[in-house]
Amino acid sequence: MKKLLLFAFAACALAACSDDDGDSRVPATAVVLDCTEKELAVGETLQLTATPAPANTTDDVVWSSDAEEFATVSESGLVTAVAAGTAKISATYGSVSATCTVHVSEPDPEPDPDPNPDPEPEPSNLISFETSEGMLAIDGKAVQLGDITVSGGSAAGNHHNVFWAKGGSYDDLAVGGVYNGYLCSTSDEKIWFGTYFSADIGYGDYWGGFVLSANYGRTATSVNYANQFMVWADKGANGSSNCMIGYFDGYTSGYATPMIEFVEPRQVSYLYMANSAITYPYKPTQVDEASYYYKVKITGSLEGKETGSAECFLINGSEKLSDWKKVDLSALGKVDCLTFSPASNEANAYGLLVPAYFAIDEIGLIAEK
């Protein structure tokens, strides 16, 4: 009798275990895709999502394509269009599945290029300061570079191939020996270059802003103000003869800061910049040569509001600009003034210690429509 009871108990326990194993598997009874039909171009993709019922099914999804030459599907349901044709993408959970029909077509052809596209803006009115361009002095006469005499100071003496605001109409317009105005203009008098000149009153002739020069050389080994009209190059930008030399005087207002003014707003595409024969050989005293930099910031403005700026490093550690460099100014947009402001870490509480000279040449203006 005891054996019979033990056998019955064991049979019941086995049956109970069998029922528990069966309950641990939850088969899927249905599956739904978030997309049942889609058009794709070759190369495009489609992420499909399958939702089974019940949500706690123990079945895993299996993705498949019935025409992989047209569309493939990854284990995560990402469909990739391969070639023109139709493929059925299936998501299967156990014994149930759902399908998305994918129609693949060739991508639309690229449109034919416009046979007459609008031309890219091209520089016009290149300003290279050549005699043939007819630059005009303040009295309306043609600019003529020639011999000048600097009175007093470390640069005293005669200099050749220079045009500055001393003598003639400039002296007539000076107030107390100081001229603060325009040096010259383009032949149409629509673009003007500012300058500052102070006659010798015990400290020597002094200038700021811009002067015209045709002096070039790379032989200076130290700072010599007799080289203030010389560019560290063999010629002007792209072989021109003349260029503008700028000097920034941070203590004097007006055109002692180099600037170019436009009677009618224009967009400047670029200009070229170079070191002067003073700045190139300068040795810093406040910082080591490896960290020393000297740069010029060019700021555009229109009706007194800044439109943007660009920078040109003339010296950056061991890298010294030894020829002309093209500087892109197209991002400044239309301007009626360009201002040139040197900056350097070679400075003290009173301002820059590096002589703030630089040169510009070949200014390219965007053609007006």
Can you describe what's shown?
The termini are far apart. The model is unreliable at 1-21 (pLDDT under 50). The chain has 2 domains: 28-103, Immunoglobulin-like; 124-363, Jelly Rolls. The protein has 2 helices and 26 strands. With 369 residues, it is mostly beta strands. Residues 27-103 form the BIG2 domain. InterPro entries: Big_2, DUF4465, Invasin/intimin_cell_adhesion.
Provide a quick synopsis of the model:
This protein is mainly β and 369 residues long. 7% of the residues lie in helices and 44% in strands.
Global Rg? 39 Å
Number of strands: 26
How many angstroms does the end-to-end distance come to?
115 Å
Structural class: mainly beta
Largest sheet: 5 strands, antiparallel, barrel
Q: What is the ordering of alpha helices and beta strands?
A: HEEEEEEEEEEEEEHEEEEEEEEEEEEE
Q: Per CATH, what is the topology of the largest domain?
A: Jelly Rolls
| Number of domain modules | 2
How would the blueprint of this fold be written?
Elements: H1 2-23, E1 30-33, E2 37-41, E3 45-47, E4 50-53, E5 61-65, E6 71-73, E7 78-81, E8 85-93, E9 96-105, E10 123-127, E11 136-137, E12 146-150, E13 157-163, H2 169-173, E14 178-185, E15 191-198, E16 206-213, E17 243-247, E18 259-274, E19 293-302, E20 305-316, E21 319-320, E22 325-328, E23 334-344, E24 347-348, E25 351-352, E26 357-366
Parallel strand pairs: 2-9
Antiparallel strand pairs: 1-4, 3-7, 5-8, 6-7, 8-9, 10-26, 11-14, 12-13, 13-16, 14-15, 15-16, 15-18, 16-17, 17-26, 18-22, 18-23, 18-26, 19-20, 19-23, 20-21, 24-25
